[in-house]
Design a protein that fits this description.
The chain is mainly alpha-helical and about 240 residues long. The chain has helices at about 35-45, 60-65, 70-85, 100-125, 130-145, 150-170, 170-180, 180-195, 200-215, 220-240, and strands at about 85-90, 95. It has a two-stranded antiparallel ribbon with strand order 1-2. Strand 1 (about 85-90) and strand 2 form a beta hairpin. Helix 4 runs antiparallel to helix 10 (about 220-240), helix 5 runs antiparallel to helix 6 (about 150-170) and helix 9 (about 200-215) runs antiparallel to helix 10 (about 220-240). The longest helix is centred in the middle third of the chain and has 25 residues, at about 100-125. The relative contact order is 0.13.
Length: about 240
């Protein structure tokens, strides 16, 4: 599963950046290839709503603002299109994906089914060490949500939580299916978490879920998993419909 933390964070805005379609990407001398830096920067800008759903991504403007070649920008846009964060619209070109309410409902329904199954498999298959790592991940999530951590950090930590959950579930089939919609799932997470008061509630829901998982209470854990996604869906759909 691709995560925003898989490469150095390069999406921070440079103080001297001129006004443009978004705050910009700082390209530095780091180990990651240039294409990965640009890809991560654009991905973070989409998930952080610097690039808004439905916004056009004009190659010329991206080239001028980021300061890279046309080929590099095109490669990054192709990857984002494959992930589902960018779509190609006739006569408009590349556009940031903007899920309709119906699409979002379907994605939440898919997540609810797959994540409930993942919880069941984790309880059946996870080791004591994997339980401990899951508890550590949710503790970090609760601490960050309580301290008002920025969206990007909360998304990274929630990605870590789901990595641990999937690892303990040991189901390549579920992991592969979720991987196919992961980028759009992260966009919905960002939409939900961006709403006032949602982050602390989300963290408490996740902590209750982990308590049920630790107790090996399959019925309760499954119910809490589905309820968590219902709450996320209600918040996210309200934001989309408004």
């Amino acid at each position: 599963m691709t995560t925003a933390g898989s490469a150095p964070d390069v999406s921070a805005a440079a103080p001297e950046a001129e006004a443009g379609i978004f705050s910009g990407i700082r390209i530095g001398r780091v180990a990651a290839p240039l294409r990965e830096q640009v890809l991560d920067g654009l991905r973070n800008a989409i998930l952080g709503f610097e690039l808004q759903p439905g916004q056009r991504l004009v190659e010329r403007e991206l080239i001028e603002q980021i300061g890279v070649s046309r080929a590099t920008v095109r490669e990054a846009l192709r990857e984002l299109t494959a992930e589902g964060l960018v779509v190609t619209v006739p006569q408009k070109g590349a556009v940031v994906y903007a899920p309709s309410p119906d699409e979002a409902r379907d994605l939440y329904a898919v997540r609810a089914a797959l994540e409930a199954l993942t919880v069941r498999r984790f309880i059946e298959r996870a080791s004591a060490a994997q339980h401990e790592r899951l508890r550590a991940a949710v503790a970090q999530l609760v601490a960050e949500a309580s301290s008002g951590a920025e969206m990007r950090q909360l998304l990274r930590t929630k990605d870590l939580f789901y990595q641990e959950l999937l690892s303990g579930a040991a189901s390549p089939t579920v992991e592969q299916i979720l991987g196919g919609v992961q980028a759009r799932v992260r966009l919905l997470r960002a939409t939900s978490l961006s709403q006032p008061g949602r982050a602390p509630k989300m963290a408490e829901e996740m902590r209750a879920l982990v308590d049920a998982i630790t107790a090996c209470d399959v019925e309760l854990a499954t119910r809490l998993c589905i309820e968590h996604l219902e709450h996320a869906a209600a918040t996210g759909l309200a934001a989309l419909e408004s």
